[in-house]
Amino acid sequence: DGGITQSPKYLFRKEGQNVTLSCEQNLNHDAMYWYRQDPGQGLRLIYYSQIVNDFQKGDIAEGYSVSREKKESFPLTVTSAQKNPTAFYLCASGGGTHSYEQYFGPGTRLTVT
Amino acid sequence: GNSVTQMEGPVTLSEEAFLTINCTYTATGYPSLFWYVQYPGEGLQLLLKATKADDKGSNKGFEATYRKETTSFHLEKGSVQVSDSAVYFCALIRYSGGYQKVTFGIGTKLQVIP
């Protein structure tokens, strides 16, 4: 089955620690995205990548970093510089020019205490 | 810039009631419009879409029509079920600068009671 996987489902970290969230897709999509979801605020774009070895900042990139070494993978690191990291993180992918839908993974809920 | 305005929830309905969730948008050009649904603790699933004016998207009894004259894409269902309880997001997607730029509404929580 084609789709997007995110792991883990739940993640707990102490303040001051960096943490990496995994996102893998087997849809052969060029573009991948990371969103953050907070109650009452909808989804906000953190980073996106159109092709391997290239990525761009979204609307709220501060305190986050990404890499895109393989087409299938787009991990997100939440650094200690992120002031309020507790949130639900969603990864998505899209086919680019010929496909308008974005397909979403199941999400990772990160709790930092 | 682009924006999507959704009615704020929560919306509480009895089973078999008629559902309308309003969505209006502001965008340059001709965006594609989408409704996504999110069940508790899960990611977003595409519910339906429309890519040009007057298109009607439909799926699982839900419908929405792309109205360019009123810049709206209201979601409707004739008879809701308890299993429809979820959060619904209206979104527009434009292809800009080489990538898909998605603008989401804040989401409307629907609760259907038996």
Note down, in words, how this protein is organized.
The complex is a heterodimer of chains A (113) and B (114). Chain A contains no helices and 11 strands. By secondary structure, chain A is an all-beta fold. In chain A, strands 2, 4, 5, 6, 9, 10 and 11 form a 7-stranded mixed beta sheet that branches. In chain A, strands 1-3-8-7 form a 4-stranded antiparallel beta sheet, with no helix packed on it. Chain A is globular and about 35 Å long. By secondary structure, chain B is mainly beta. In chain B, a hairpin with a 2-residue loop joins strand 10 and strand 11. At the A-B interface, strand 5, strand 9 and strand 10 of A face strand 5, strand 6, strand 10 and strand 11 of B.
Topology:
The complex is a heterodimer of chains A (113) and B (114).
Chain A: E1 4-7, E2 10-13, E3 19-25, E4 31-37, E5 43-49, E6 56-57, E7 64-66, E8 76-78, E9 87-94, E10 102-104, E11 108-112
Parallel strand pairs in A: 2-11
Antiparallel strand pairs in A: 1-3, 3-8, 4-5, 4-9, 5-6, 7-8, 9-10, 9-11
Chain B: E1 3-6, E2 11-14, E3 19-21, E4 23-26, E5 32-38, E6 44-50, E7 56-59, E8 62-65, E9 75-77, E10 86-96, E11 99-104, E12 108-113
Parallel strand pairs in B: 2-12
Antiparallel strand pairs in B: 1-4, 3-9, 5-6, 5-10, 7-8, 8-9, 10-11, 10-12
Biggest interface, CB < 8 A: A-B, 26 and 22 residues
Q: Total number of β-strand segments of chain A? A: 11
Regions of chain A with pLDDT < 50 over 5+ consecutive residues?
none
Radius of gyration of chain B: 14 Å
SSE order of chain B in H/E notation? EEEEEEEEEEEE
Helix vs. strand class of chain A:
mainly beta
Number of β-strand runs of chain B: 12
Number of helices of chain B: 0
Radius of gyration over C-alpha positions of chain A, nearest whole angstrom: 13 Å
Mean pLDDT of chain A: 91
Distinctive features:
heterodimer, A: 113 residues, mainly beta, 7-stranded mixed sheet, 4-stranded antiparallel sheet, 11 strands, 47% strand, B: 114 residues, 12 strands
